Amino acid sequence: DTLERAARRRRGERALRGLWRGLFIGAVLYLLALGIFKLAPVPTTTLLWTGLFALACPVIGFILGGWRKPTLAETARWVDVKQNLKERMSTALEFAGDENSGTWRDLVLHDALSHANEIDPRKLVPFRLPKVTRWALLILALTAGLGFVPEYRSKAFTQQRADEKVIQEAGKQVAELT
Q1: What is the reported pTM?
Q2: To bridge 26 with a disulfide, which of 17, 54, 99, 136 should be the other Cys (CB 3.0-4.6 Å)?
Q3: How many CB atoms lie within 10 A of CB 172?
């Protein structure tokens, strides 16, 4: 039971770390797309699709981070290393299914059980924010600040857009006149 709780906490911690990494990647992608949009005349749909993908990145990171469920044997080895139990848990897990070991099996299981009561999964796997969180929040703040910067468009480009609008308006008037 203790190993299962530790495995669940490890999986949850990996999923949250994946969420923050996904947020960082999405924020960087959107910052780049917004920067390109502000400097070059790219269509707004590019910015829209990049934004939607950036919103999906944390979800994808969360799913990928928590996708693989750690086995009990893997968790037992990890707990042995973290708690310095000298392979007590992993050995007990191996002997638990072996009925032919007799008293040796009982001694190993009893020793592991006495140490299992000392294991606190909350202390082994504390939920804390990873370092990438700071960078993700910084990039998000930069992106929000960049959102207030007006787009740079050359005079030739703005004249071309104005001419396109005049041509469309003239075409509508010719269509109405016809």
Answers
A1: 0.71
A2: 54
A3: 10
Contacts for 13-16 with beta carbons within 8 Å, 24 or more apart? 13/125, 13/127, 14/65, 14/66, 15/62, 15/63, 15/65, 15/66, 16/62, 16/65, 16/127
Residue indicated by tokens 């600040």: 145
Q: Among positive and negative, which fits the CA dihedral 148, 154, 156, 157?
A: negative
> How far apart, in whole angstroms, are the C-alpha atoms of residue 176 and residue 178?
5
The label of the residue with tokens 């994946």 reads 18
Q: What residues have CB less than 8 Å from 46, skipping those under 6 apart? A: 33, 37
- The H helix count followed by the E strand count for the chain is 8, 0
pLDDT tens by residue, the chain, 178 residues: 777 888 888 888 889 999 999 999 999 999 999 999 988 888 889 999 999 999 999 999 999 998 988 887 777 777 766 766 666 666 666 666 666 666 656 666 666 666 666 777 677 777 788 899 999 999 999 999 998 988 887 787 778 878 888 888 888 888 888 8
